[in-house]
Amino acid sequence: MSSEELFANLNGAGLLIHHWDTDGICSARLLLERLPKNIVNKTPMLGNYFLTDEEITAYSSYDFIIIVDMALPEDNILRLAQKTKVMIFDHHLQQSIPGVFHHNPIGAGKDPLLYPSASWIVNDFLGNSMNLSALLGIVGDHEKRIQTNKPIYELITSFCSTEHLTFDELLTMVYLLDSNYKVGDRNAVEEAPHLLLGYTDAHRILQNVRWKNNLSLLETEIIKYIDAPFEEKQNILLKRIHTKFNIISTVTRKIAWNSGKDTVVVNTGFFKDMDQIYVRSGKDLQPLIQQGKMFGYRCGGKREVLGAVVPKEKTESFLEEIVRFLILCVETKKQ
After folding, report:
1. CB 16 within 8 A of CB 40
2. Residue 130 burial (C-beta neighbours within 10 Å; 0-12, 13-18, 19+)
3. Domain ranges of the chain
4. How far is residue 194's CA from residue 201's CA, in Å, rounded to a whole number?
5. pLDDT (tens digit, 9 = 90+) per residue, 72-123?
6. Domain made up of 3-209: CATH architecture
7. Closest CA to 43 of 154, 171, 185
8. Beta bridge partners of 16
9. b/e code 66-79 from CB counts within 10 Å (16+ = b)
10. pTM to 2 decimal places
11. Tell me: domain 228-334, CATH 3.10.310.40, correct?
């Protein structure tokens, strides 16, 4: 189905649910440009990879819902689909859901290197030419590691040359956009796609004072935890942090990429009754993600990433499962 055919059938009140990071924000910005002007955009409660019962009840009143860069649990989608038309654009690992329009090349088995972000997938579906939002989503999800994806990185460098930008400036834009969710400002996350729509000059992102203040605060907190001691079990790094900021993915990414080792980070300070767990690995984490879901945890991610929200009393047992899985992967590879 083409974008014209899909959007032509959208009538009534619409809702756009997007992830809170740069990829989600930029994907939302691309869609908002083409959707009816009265559509509302929301991000889930920050840190939740699922919708609460209250959110599902409120959102079920819309005539259609578009979900982008947010691998919500299947039961969330099915509950929404009972009341409204649901469409999904994503690049996370997920099964296709019957009765729901689902555009996810990676979920369909395509090469993730060719579809490096939700923003890229959305931009391609819309038939747009290369633009800042499409590329910022990629840089947001991969940062400097995108430089190893030569075809994509060549497109980024060509765009930067044409637009008089540098790759480091793109990275700074990502950090500024991500600062909204990391300081826990949900309203600012939902406002950001609309600001990007109005920013005709990319440098406006770099000049946003509120985002710059956020970033200064966060950089101090992130450095504190990256430099703190960690545990190491059979070449697996385990870091425990306690912070009110949603920086677990950033801390995990920086430790994993700097060390080249499998990295597991636990944050006990973001939720009152739950802990955040984040894993980055060179292993295929799909079986571990499914295992977490079987345990009833809110779990999602990509091939190399797992994010989970786990009851505090279950944290240690799930950590043991994660370490056991990563060790088994190594032992299996040696055989």
Report:
1. yes
2. middle
3. 3-209, 228-334
4. 14
5. 989 999 999 999 999 999 998 778 888 899 999 988 889 989 999 999 999 9
6. Alpha-Beta Complex (3.90)
7. 185
8. 41, 66
9. bbbbbbbbeebbeb
10. 0.83
11. yes
